[in-house]
Amino acid sequence: METYLIQSGLALTSFYLIYWLLIRHRQNFGLNRFYILLSIIFAGILPLLEIPFDWTHQPQLGQALEPIIISGIGNETFSMTTNSSYSIFSIVYIIGLMVFTFRTITGLATLSFYYWRYPRVKHHDFTAVILPGQKAPFTFFNLLFICQADLNKGQINELIVHEKVHRDHYHSVDLILMEVFASIHWFNPIIWLFKKDLKSEHEFMADEQVIDQGFDKSRYRSLLLKTNEGMALYLANNFNYSILKKRLVMMTKQKSNRKSMNYLTVFPVMLLTASILFFNFQINGQNTTIPDVFPEYKTGNKDMYVLFQKNIKYPIEARKSHTEGTVYVSFTVSDEGTIQEISASKAKYNLMEEIVVVAYKDGKDKVGEQDLSILEEECERLAKLLGDFNPGTKDGKAISTKLTIPVTFKLSPSK
């Protein structure tokens, strides 16, 4: 998880730098919005993409063992406790994730409360929720939240047009996507800059549509200045004084005639950056540096295999569903010899000796679908039991090295 957050954060930073240098002052607000959303999506998926390399250099670091035979009786429970300790980073991150997820849920719950608590009427193709007090109108999808006084005046047509732009361009979807990503990257200041800029682009788009429909610009600006600030609902498109000055300035700027040429430059740069980041993540993940001396278990690789042999289990759920297959459990031996980044992966890094786990079928008909994730969890559990290694070395210096142990699960007919 830490690796994903670091790589995703690096992608966010790179894309935001392009936005800040080349885009933020441009007045094609729809394309600006598209760039921000594309940046968020790319940053989310690039670290997850994987090219399964098979390295030709596959050292045999262990001694071959006979297949590990597991009886079908009395062997369904684990006999050892897995290492479930969490780093301080993990604890702090999980707490932050819970806090911001709770904030998002609270925002949705608040909107739901307003919807069910206050009267609703049809107004300008909206479902208008009539709020008490004096509050600026705001939207969430086709819901228009508006106070009774503004509804009675009927003199806020400009604001209604403004809110229709938010609705018709599905800005609420943008905000939900951004809120989810911000909860995941709550510690990263770049995501909050992106979030603020996305809301600004939303407002610029809506303001532009109001002016283009022929409303008086001076009256509209005066109306914005007089409008009370909307409630701080994170998932709603509401009037916000924190960006009002930028909006007023943007309305006075003349449109550039070089918009298309500018974006013909920006998006290739973005795609090039994404490609560079992707292959950088792949190279770092694959750990292409081949050590002169490979890591070795502190007490010898034979003892490592014995530890696996004594403690590995064929999960009962996998036996019931007749699930078989090979799992490649990978882990990094740091330059200090500690185990890090344990995961089941399709990629094969510096293959070690294969382990074969054989169990008897439970004698019953197949139940459910085959799910290798059950076997992957068992392999990851076993890898967490490993102690320290003697690190690999390159040119006499200790380096981090990624290793893979193939574990093949086979089922034999019941006795």
On the 0 to 100 scale, the average pLDDT is 76
Tell me the number of strands: 14
Strand count, sense and barrel status of the largest sheet are: 5 strands, mixed
- Which of globular, elongated, flat, extended, rod-shaped describes the shape? elongated
Number of helical segments? 13
Structural class by sheet pairing and helices: alpha+beta
Strand order of the largest sheet: 1-10-14-8-9
Query: How large is the radius of gyration?
Result: 29 Å
Strand content: 15-25%
Q: What string, H for helix and E for strand, traces the elements in order?
A: HHEHEEEEHHHHHEHHEHHEEEHEEEE
Percentage of residues in helical conformation? 40-55%
Explain this structure.
The protein has 13 helices and 14 strands. By secondary structure, it is of the alpha+beta class. The strands form 4 sheets. Strands 1-10-14-8-9 form a 5-stranded mixed beta sheet, with helices on one face. Helix 2 (29-45) runs antiparallel to helix 7.
Please give a quick description of this structure:
The protein is α+β, with helices and mostly antiparallel strands. Helix content is 48%, strand content 16%. It has helices at 2-23, 29-45, 88-117, 148-153, 157-168, 171-184, 189-212, 217-226, 244-252, 259-286, 301-311, 316-320, 372-383; strands at residues 68-70, 120-123, 126-131, 138-140, 143-147, 237-238, 296-297, 325-333, 339-344, 355-360, 389-390, 392-394, 397-399, 401-412.
Give me some keywords for this one.
415 residues, alpha+beta, five-stranded mixed β-sheet, 48% helix, elongated
List the helices and strands and how they pair.
Elements: H1 2-23, H2 29-45, E1 68-70, H3 88-117, E2 120-123, E3 126-131, E4 138-140, E5 143-147, H4 148-153, H5 157-168, H6 171-184, H7 189-212, H8 217-226, E6 237-238, H9 244-252, H10 259-286, E7 296-297, H11 301-311, H12 316-320, E8 325-333, E9 339-344, E10 355-360, H13 372-383, E11 389-390, E12 392-394, E13 397-399, E14 401-412
Parallel strand pairs: 1-10, 3-5, 10-14
Antiparallel strand pairs: 2-3, 4-5, 4-6, 7-11, 8-9, 8-14, 12-13
Helix pairs in contact: 1-2, 1-7, 1-10, 2-7, 2-10, 3-6, 5-7, 6-7, 7-9
